[in-house]
Amino acid sequence: MDYDTDTGPVFCRVCGQDKTRPFPAAGILYHRCMHCAATFMDTAFLPAPEAERKRYEQHCNDPDDPGYRRFLHRAADPLIERLGAGCIGLDFGCGPASAMVRIMKANGHRMHVYDPFFRTG
Q1: pTM of the model
Q2: Which of 12, 55, 85, 111 is deepest in the core (most CB within 10 A)?
Q3: What is the tens place of the pLDDT at every residue in 16-69?
């Protein structure tokens, strides 16, 4: 189990388990969950919300951009191969418009969206 000396065990942000191990990379501390295999950044390295939004707004996530859709297909295609028909998903961090929702809906899946800056309700 991975421990933060100030707060105790480090819980996975995906599945909530406390079975994590440190995963340092490029001078940043990440944690890898031994239960679900998620890798997530240590909270000490997360940017302040204002800095995160400023960086996020530099990204162009136009759902009609073919290059962006090709990029997203790198994540979507393996999911689509493994999912059963009609699954429900969440695009967390979808931005003002979600290309991933379009991709997944085109493959028969229902999607919800959430973004702490653009879609909170």
Answers
A1: 0.66
A2: 12
A3: 999 999 988 999 999 999 999 999 999 999 999 999 889 888 888 889 999 999
Q: Which residues pair with 20 in a beta bridge?
A: 33
Task: Give the dihedral sign, CA 110/12/68/73.
Answer: negative
Residue 119 inside a domain? The answer is: no
Distance CA 24, CA 22 (A): 6
* Two tokens, residue 62: 């136009």
Quick one: which of 11, 61, 57, 55 has its CA closest to 33?
A: 11
Q: Are residues 70 and 99 in the same domain?
A: yes
Do the domain assignments include residue 70? yes
Query: Quick one: 105 and 85 in the same domain?
Result: yes
Q: Is residue 120 part of a domain?
A: no
| 17 within some domain | yes
Q: Which two tokens stand for residue 42?
A: 């240590």
| Pair (35, 61) in one structural domain | no
Per-residue pLDDT reduced to its tens digit, 74-121: 999 999 999 999 999 999 888 888 999 999 999 999 999 998 888 765
